[in-house]
Amino acid sequence: LTVLFFLMLLSNLNAQNKITFTNVDDAISLAMKNNSDIVRSKIDQLKANEKVSEVYSENLFPTITLNSRYFRTFKKQVINIFGQTFETGSDNNIINSLDISEPIPVLGTPVFSGIRIAEHFENIQSENLIDVENNVRTNVRKSYYGVMLTKSIVEVNKLTLQNAESNFNTVNLKYKNGVATEFDFLRAKVKVDNILPQLSKSERNYELSQRALSNAIGLKDNEAVDVSGELSYDSTEVLGSTDELIQKISENNVAIRQLQIGNMINKELVNIDKANYLPKLYIFGAYNLSASSNDDRSLFNYPFFNSLNAGLGLSWNLNLFRNSFKVKQSELEVKKTEEQIRDVKQKLKLLSESTLIALDDAKQRLKSQKETIELAKRGVELANLSYASGVLNQIDVQDAELTLYQSRLAYIQAIYDYQIAKAELERLLEK
To answer: How confident is the model over 42-66, as pLDDT tens digits?
Structure first.
């Protein structure tokens, strides 16, 4: 009794901890907070924001460097003058310097190109976050409808088992009364026995689909999830005309935007490489504080001397041939990206067209299969009545049941295919 009570208590606790979703939007909302891919992408976006601030600081504020050195002379230089030797230098030397430099944003110093590259990189990370969220949203939708599909298959198998058991009871009664043959009895019994493993397999698939949904959401500690309701679809929804959808996807998809931003970076790199043909100008300043003294004087009595200077500097890399090769490589990278953009646009058109075809195909199957189910139900009813009256045999009854079973599976499969195609279309549309 103690063990039984413990198992019942554990079962109740598991039921209480299970998260049950009434609609797919709730599952998506939870995934936006818990999915690891989204969390990592948001961190990358924060890093990109910090990188922009870093580039602004490097390019718009002067570089200030403090250097401080102390060195001890163990052997001094000796000079011989008219037969007499003299030591030069000091035992202790202290040198402090404060250097300031700032590039002048003209000629070969493309300061603002570097800033624009950092901002483009930040935009790429923002687009990447959108892409990750779209993928997570789609995966959750597919996993959610996967749970509903496997759940519906379990229900279909249960209904089929009930029909088979009801038919078996009828055959068994007729067999005991000597009206039905042993063959009919065995056939009805085998029918029931064959459905049981199908039901068990569908229940296992149902459990696996729940785990897949939990993983897609990003729940930790293997939290159990479930969904309520049945597979359905909205036949009144309007997504837009086919041409408008294809045009919108092929021109404005996040993949295209990422490539376009990447091409902006490539063009800025071309400008930077071209700027290397020109000299770089900068202003600088330095403050020096130094002292030299021998050991006979304490540190606090060292005579310190200071100096302050400023000026204008120029640096120019005259290896122009090597730089020309770099410019050509950068320009080729721009052309490569432009070709990639054209290729991705064409692939997005094909993908959107195939998705719309799959969506329309699922709609057509839904209409036909819904009518087929009603006809198949009526067929099973008539077959059972006719068999009870001795008009039909057992094979006719099982054929009718098989037709109903297949019709139900085809109908829920059509709904599932519709929802998956719709989820893929919404991913392309970034909904």
So the answer is: 998 888 888 888 888 877 788 899 9
